[in-house]
Amino acid sequence: MSTSLSRRALVRTATAAGLSSLAAPTIVHALGALAATGRHGERSAGELLIRGGRVVNADGVVEADVRIVETTIAEVGRSLAPGAGARVIDARGKLVLPGGIDPHTHLHPGFADDMTSGSMAALAGGITTVGTFSTPRQGETPLAALDRMAATVQAEAIADVILHSAVWPPTDELIAMLPQLAARGQPSIKFYMVRPDFGAQMEMVVRVLEAAREAGVVTMLHCEDGALLAAAVRRLTAAGNTSLEHYIESRPVIAEVVATQQAAALAESTGAPIYLVHMSSARALDACAGARAAGLPLYLETRPLFIHLSEEKLRGPDYQLYVGQPPLRPRADVDAMMRGLIDGRIDVLATDHAPWTRAQKLDPALSIARVRPGASDLQFMLPMFFSEGVGKRKLTLPRFVETTSTNAAKIFGMYPQKGVIRAGSDADVAIWDPRRTAAVLAVDDLSKSDYSPYEGWQVTGWPVTVIRRGEVVVEAGAVSGSAGSGRLVERQPWRRSST
Ligand SMILES: [Zn+2]
Questions:
Q1: Alpha helix (H) residue ranges in 373-421
Q2: What separation in Å is there between the alpha carbon of 435 and the centre of ligand 1?
Q3: The domain at 32-98+419-479 falls in which architecture?
């Protein structure tokens, strides 16, 4: 491979040859030689015709052309003729997929990325919509926090964005606010079951879930039991074993299992839509089988770390780089997570993109009681999943699209505006070269994180052209797009019939 985004260091400048005339806020990452085309980021209107590709949606694959007019898909069909002045993109031999939707990233203060750098990594990896969290500061209401984060989206984002309100504690005020979150087009909240007082607040948690069901608000849950985790840390600390070498023991799988059982019980008891983030173990997956078989709206997400890496990494060199919540699990769990995505027991693959620098992760002050969990994943999630799943396992192309775009669009109230290539939908499109090979290299990661847990991983299949609402934002090895061109997506409240 020669010209993909990876392999060769990207020039992190907007003043590369041919680009210096672009408006100041325009962000361009380009290989110097390729940047000389000078075409990136200029075109956002008119007609774009993607010709000769194989269009993949969750319901199948068809040979078709895709006509984009302004920001919207106008037509999908055979042998479409370009209109006057249309730009034609030759997609012969390529796959034409809906832009990826990653509902779970951390592009908020506290992490290495801002919404601009996070957007660039996402777009380079074929993801056109990202979800991140709106967390109220001391004394700030969830609605005020949402307004603050919406302003950040408007100033910084290039990808489109959805916001989940990370709120605690559960209160009557929160219950009263849920319909307003839905009215503002951001109908999702997140609770962390790892909180030491989660159990003590259970009665109010149930009341919030009942109100969330009525308001069409999806509740995301981090499923690890805080009391069991605290007990593990207390025992290890008493024995003097506080270093991250003991990280696996500090977060036992039973803490995930019991929290997941409780989440499934809450789904059954309240009927509220509940979305479990970053599932990591076969036992947790099994704990959801009954609720899902009963048709309850209990949605499951896993993340790349859990389908590619096993807990041996936490026992090897630079093990601190692999610390996440939950921790990496044994190989059997890794296989279970990949199988769950392939066979439909898991709905969504999301990054949980949590960008840190290598120095931050290796900070000797960290311990089992004080961690910096997670890793950068936005740029490489889709190519790696494509390569490992479609290339080496029995993951079909429609199922790839379903788990990386369509399901998230449906669960979070964006379908069919997003998550499908269809007339009337937003023109969010990733054109993939299924044969392009490259290695995952941190030096190519547009995230401000400076290492990758997958360094050197060989991948076949990369998005080569990415279009966000009709604007070509990745092309010929370059990422372009103005900070602030991303939009906060106006979402619909959750409805049972929509998933
Ligand atoms: Zn997260």
A1: 381-385, 397-401, 407-411
A2: 32
A3: Roll (2.30)
